[in-house]
Amino acid sequence: MSVPKFLRGTVTIAEMEARKLRHASSELWIRAVQPALWLLVFGEALSKVRGIAPSKFTYLQFITPGVLSQSVLFIAIFYGITLVWERDLGLLSKLLATPVPQSSIVAGKALSAAIRGLFQAIVVFALALIIHVNLNLQVLDVLGVFVVITLLAMCFSSLSMFIASMIKTRERMMGIGQLITMPLFFASNAIYPLSLMPKWLQYVAIANPLSYAVNALRSLLLTGDYSSLPQDILVLLVYTLVLLFATSLTIRRIIQ
Question: What are 188-240's pLDDT values in tens digits?
Fold first, then answer.
């Protein structure tokens, strides 16, 4: 398979998936409630507690990149349910019967999850401005945030589709999604630094791709320290490529 064919197929699938948002835009606004609650309720409440965030930042500043990562994670991790729903309607069988490579189908669907994630980023940016959270919103920093969010959404939507290809039912997919979402979130540095975790949980957080996304977002939006940014993006990219490849191999199992 040639690279141009793969890219054309990926863009075609992503565009097709993105067009669905015009008919289901309410889903995006409903999902925007979650980061608003985390920032306005959880963030405001814990901002009174000293010692959680680094001394030169407020807790609201510290948690904003974590809330952004969480909202993208919650969108992506349930993306496999859409795959099962399309299987039940017969749409997935028709799509897999087209000349579009399976890898392009997976990558295109993962990219469409990233489009939803970018909308969440805009919502979080708007909320941060409203409640006067001081963030770096220079053009290059924001573009970097979009790159990180795209990788994060593609990573976990690929994981979700991989799981869906194995368990094959919406009910099980919903249960698995709920089972792994909160551990992924709390076993990361999204709402507290690694130094506050017990040693065993620090090791889990280091293996958790969400931690690298949060690190990258904090570098771009908060600290301005880009020294670890290449490593964070590289780890996210490796996780994403591995999961895209694995899902491309197993996606046909969902219709068998």
Answer: 888 888 888 889 999 999 999 999 999 999 999 988 889 999 999 999 999 99
Joined tokens for residue 217: 């977002």
The distance of Cα 148 from the centroid of its chain, to the nearest Å, equals 9
pTM: 0.89
Decide if 232 contacts 145 (C-beta within 8 A). no
Task: Give the type of residue at 19.
Answer: R
CA distances from 125 to 128, 129, 222, 234 (A): 5, 6, 13, 25
What tokens does 255 get? 């219709």
- d(Cα 73, Cα 196) in Å, to the nearest integer? 22
Angle, in degrees to the nearest 10, between helices 139-167 and 209-218: 170
Q: How many CA within 13 A on the CB side of residue 17?
A: 25
Q: What are the structure tokens assigned to 121, written together?
A: 């980023």
What number of residues does the chain have?
Answer: 256
224 vs 146: CA distance, rounded Å: 16
Domain segments of the chain as ranges: 3-255
44-100 pLDDT per residue, tens: 666 666 656 666 778 888 888 888 898 888 888 888 888 888 888 888 888 888 888
Nearest to residue 122, comparing CAs of 211, 40, 189, 29?
Answer: 29
